[in-house]
Amino acid sequence: MPLPMVVGVDGSESSLRAVDWAADEAGLRELPLRIVHAYRWDRYEGGSLAREFDEPSRRVTPDDILVVAGRRARRHHPDLAVTTEAVAEEPEYVLLREARNASAVILGTRGRGELADLLLGSVSLTVAATANCPVVVVRGSHDNRAVEGRHRRVVVGVAAAPTAAVRFATEEARRRGAVLDAVWAWRCPTHDTADHPLLTGTPERVHEERAAEELRAVLVDTPADVRLHRLTVEGPARRVLLNASYGADLLVVGRRRPGQFGHRLGRVAHTLLHHSACPVAVVPDTA
């Protein structure tokens, strides 16, 4: 039986935007969608939910949240198999448990007020850092759709070896009929240590060519039906990928396997989850 897409909802507008995105993604993959609400999330006034019932002063209940989320999911995908559940537990525990039997977990951001689109809530950050399946945090001011995206472009940050993130991004580009931009960020040591007598003569071109060779090696098995662009860009990976997010419908980064310090997001993933201009998928490395 195929593993479902799981989306966490809390009644906020950002979580309902995540439902829209998750419904598209489930439709693309021909998977069922599971909508989960944890009671102990912070309470919201629920104005946008109450308006769904034409009762602006209505007190929002967990059942209301699930009804509205299910309605949103079926709005564009009436044939989508949707199940819902409300659970009286902390959201991190609920979503990490759900992740054990999910193809991916989809979440919204949790900012409030003027910083609503800038801050990432602790739930989304914890799940992205810990789940054993891909986690997508729906960011940006896009139209909340995973299909027919504005840019028709998927970007992946490429590491030094084939990773689960590259495979995930390749399949996403194929499903969407989108271009795959595989980005390798490289640095020239002479820029950082110009006064070092052994490094000042190293030509910038050598580092760029080496990056291009490594990128080609990683992508050598990319299916021929995927429209692939290889990009080598000088600069810190955080800055390079953040800039790339402005022209993408999805940005994919990897997450290393747990080490001696347990589950942790790298600085690149952490930055992108807080500041990306498009949804971010964090994919744990299975190698």
Describe this protein's structure.
The chain is 37% helix and 20% strand. The protein is of the alpha/beta class and 287 residues long. It has a 10-stranded mixed sheet with strand order 3-2-1-4-5-10-9-6-7-8, sandwiched between helices. The model is unreliable at 111-119 and 191-201 (pLDDT under 50).
Distance between the termini: 24 Å
Rg (CA only): 20 Å
Largest sheet: 10 strands, mixed
Query: Can you list the strand order of the major beta sheet?
Result: 3-2-1-4-5-10-9-6-7-8
Helix content: 25-40%
Estimated structural class: alpha/beta
Report the order of strands and helices. EHEHHEHEHEEHEHHEHEHE
Determine the mean pLDDT. Answer: 84
Number of strands: 10
Number of helices: 10
Backbone shape? elongated
Portion of residues in beta strands equals: 15-25%
The unreliable regions are 111-119, 191-201
